[in-house]
Amino acid sequence: MQMQPEFVEEARRQAEICNACRYCEGYCAVFPALQAERAFAEADLTQLANLCHNCRNCYHACQYTAPHEFDLNLPKALAELRHDSWDAFAWPGGLARAFQRSGTMIAAACVLGFAALFLAARALPADGEGFYAVLSHNAMVAIFAPAFLLPLLSLAVSLRRYWSHVGGGRITLGHLRHAFGSAAKMRNLAGGHGDGCNFEDEDRFSQARRQAHTAVLVGFLLCFASTSSGTVLHYIFDAPAPYSLWSLPKLLGVPGGLLLGAGALWLAALKFRADPELGAPRAWGGEMGFVLLLAFVAWSGLGLWLLRDSAALALILALHLGSVLAFFLLMPFTKMAHGFYRLTALVRDAQRLEAR
């Protein structure tokens, strides 16, 4: 779990200058935590990096950016360290760094490869209706149950490493309430004065990134609730798919898919308009690969429902299942891990606030 010294040292240099200046006091969760320290160990900097949402307000407010000799770019310094921490804590090791470098290609290869396997699996007996006439329910469960549980195990190991590294203590209900409340409101994406991020253009505030994140989060939760309700209907009420438009799985899943798909494409568009030098340029491909994979999961799912009676059903089902399988298996090594790390960092920050 060794992080690259150059990222740690650059983040330390900039944090010390910011701590002396304090012009950005109160901009987001990073600065109160930063100003509570006098010296910055690697664990302190790792915690600051994972509190940062890369809104870039501090950069555009800073008087010490280039061409000043201090050459401050705190969003980039924290982004580089943040991605490096994910690489260091990821389990199994090495996979996160590979996805950072070539995320779009890896995601596309996984989707197409898994889709080919699902098409080949059509040779297995299937006697259900709708999608289950192409691939049986038992086959789907056998494939996706491990694909769901193994990434959760990987994330649990990674977050345990992070928690130990930053010196986290016993977690209380109050800590969780603080963290989930902040995350649910996307509080730190509102910017230092509540006007939003400077993510798109230089000194222009916008709530677009916060709104796009909210669409993705709500859409993902609705899709998860849709799948969960379908599982309950199948196993408890003996009501297998396919379901009508007015069933609970569809009432949750259709708006969830629309929000998830639109939000992911919105984030991709914002990322294209953003300055990559204010983030981690080496991880740009991985971040974009994940966002596009998320969009493909959503839109292929909606396409599957709309074209369920067409001759293309088998192909669309294979592509959709391939994208879902790729999403789950790659989840611990993609930007999706950011949500888990950030929530953990907010819990640790709640402990700092309590200890003041």
UniProtKB/TrEMBL annotation:
Keywords from the named record: Membrane, Oxidoreductase, Transmembrane, Transmembrane helix
GO MF assignments: glycerol-3-phosphate dehydrogenase (quinone) activity
InterPro entries according to UniProt: Citrate_utilization_prot_B (IPR012830), NarG-like_sf (IPR036197)
EC number: 1.1.5.3
Chain ranges passing through the membrane: 105-124, 130-153, 214-237, 252-272, 284-306, 312-333
Domain of life: Bacteria
Record's keyword annotation contains Zinc: no
UniProt protein name: Citrate utilization protein B
Species, as recorded: Profundibacterium mesophilum KAUST100406-0324
This protein's encoding gene: citB
